[in-house]
Design a protein that fits this description.
Length: 230
């Protein structure tokens, strides 16, 4: 794991640039899980970089970031992985394919790596973080602690951030669990090693003009049935 800080800005040095409520709902209604991408359209590099950055800015439990995101650019590999993805056309036709992988273990070295990262980013002594470190170690060492489930939950938050960010950038996407994670792990071993395992992927790009799903009404239970106020 790397200890290099990704985004050194502190939240208080920035001001929010809110979009209005109508724009937010519009973008999320506009988003749908694209079945057919326009294979001729590519996401501009700066837009994709922003999507990568947004994904890395996802929150995670304690901030431990038990994930890796692998952008699969290799055309031949994407063709091969289509076969490991129920032959879904998005895998090869979308502009971009990104795999979401979780950490397989959560040990003392992970916690120390994160502590070192905090100390380096914030310029504080490592020892000053002992309390936080011990809290995380206690959490990870709880009897029956399910590392796989815990790490997967964090990765799915990142998937949600990726999808929401894409919608707000006007980028189409499809989250995809219809894959064989073992085949992805084998193919991505050079970058994932043995410490990470694939959970799902997302494809991103631009919807094909004839993707029939785009014209169908979005199916959601009524807000009042799902959101309760007490
Ligand atoms: C974790 C997850 C996995 C999914 N896997 C696939 C998939 O493999 N292929 C696909 O076409 N859609 C997949 N979907 C898309 C869902 O079917 C879709 O989000 C759902 O039907 C709601 O439709 P909407 O996203 O278009 O509003 C997946 C969605 C999620 C959140």
């Amino acid at each position: 794991m790397t200890t290099a800080p990704t985004s050194p800005s502190s939240p208080s040095t920035l001001s929010p640039k809110p979009i209005d409520t109508a724009a937010l709902i519009n973008n999320l209604q506009w988003r749908y899980a694209v079945k057919k991408f326009d294979a001729s359209k590519k996401i501009p590099a700066a837009t994709w970089q922003a999507l990568e950055h947004a994904t890395v800015l996802s929150p995670s439990s304690f901030g431990l970031q038990p994930w890796r995101f692998v952008v699969i650019n290799d055309k031949a590999l994407r063709e091969k992985l289509k076969g490991a993805s129920w032959n879904q056309s998005q895998i090869t036709d979308a502009s971009h394919l990104i795999a979401f992988a979780r950490r397989t273990t959560l040990g003392a070295e992970d916690v120390q790596c994160y502590i070192d990262s905090i100390a380096a980013t914030r310029g504080v002594p490592v020892a000053s973080l002992d309390g936080y470190k011990n809290m995380m170690l206690g959490f990870a060492n709880q009897p029956g602690f399910d590392t796989a489930l815990w790490a997967a939950k964090q990765v799915y938050i990142a998937l949600g951030v990726f999808l929401t960010a894409a919608a707000n950038l006007g980028i189409d996407a499809c989250p995809m669990e219809g894959i064989d994670p073992k085949q992805y792990d084998e193919a991505l071993r050079p970058v994932l090693g043995n410490d990470y395992t694939t959970l799902c992927v997302a494809t991103a790009g631009y919807r094909a003009a004839d993707d029939a799903i785009a014209g169908m009404a979005k199916v959601r239970y009524p807000i009042g049935d799902v959101v309760k106020h007490v």
